Amino acid sequence: MRDAVTTLIRNYDLTGRYLDRDAMANLKSYFESGTDRISVAALINANSPVIVKEAGLQLFEEVPELIRPGGNAYTTRRYSACLRDMDYYLRYASYALVAGDPTVLDERVLQGLRETYNSLGVPIAPTVRGIQIMKEKIKAMAADAGVEDTSFVDEPFDHMSREFSEISV
């Protein structure tokens, strides 16, 4: 699994360059946010069932046709699958938060789901909205816990949302 440090070094190594000011600034930023990244990952770990449940409830309140007959979350099995997937995204987002590199999501989450969601006809817009709701909840929890700059939380969730949004269903 790559992280911000190995990715940066790899990119500079591939081009045969020494680490420059930009690289050093990126490394400094990553290390300065390290404690906050771990704090947020711990918040996610301790509260994941609540985050997923509340995000699911908010999503189904915003898009009620999902849980109506014929909707993609209609029936207990489909509803549970939706929440399971949200938990899956949350878990991998926490890995990417700690790593400081959202590309870990590409191989571990996004590649396999593209084909699966296309074949099952899973609507992408509600999936993206669910991911964004979880991000909003985590940022609020982090701010309540004293994390001043929560901007790093955006990266993995926005990466997943962007990648899912490119899927044509």
Give your account of this protein's structure.
It is a single chain. The chain has 169 residues and is mostly helical. The protein has two domains: 1-32, no CATH class; 34-165, Globin-like. It contains seven helices and no strands. It has helices spanning 4-15, 21-32, 34-62, 76-99, 104-120, 124-144, 154-165. Helix 3 packs across helix 6 (124-144) and helix 5 (104-120) packs parallel to helix 7. The radius of gyration is 17 Å and the shape is globular. This is Phycobilisome core component. Belongs to the phycobiliprotein family.
Mean pLDDT: 93
What is the radius of gyration computed over CA atoms, rounded to a whole number of angstroms?
A: 17 Å
Helix content class:
over 70%
The tally of helices reads 7
Q: CATH topology of the largest domain, anyone?
A: Globin-like
Assign the structural class, choosing from mainly alpha, mainly beta, alpha/beta, alpha+beta, or little secondary structure.
Answer: mainly alpha
Q: Return the string of H and E elements.
A: HHHHHHH
Just name the CATH architecture of the largest domain. Answer: Orthogonal Bundle
Report strand %.
Answer: under 5%
- Estimate nothing, just give the exact number of structural domains: 2
Q: Sheet bearing the most strands, described? A: none
* Unreliable residue stretches: none
Number of strands: 0
- Coarse shape: globular
Protein name: Phycobilisome core component
Subcellular location: Cellular thylakoid membrane; Membrane
Family: Belongs to the phycobiliprotein family.
InterPro entries: Allophycocyanin_b (IPR006245), Globin-like_sf (IPR009050), Phycobilisome_asu/bsu (IPR012128), Phycobilisome_asu/bsu_sf (IPR038719)
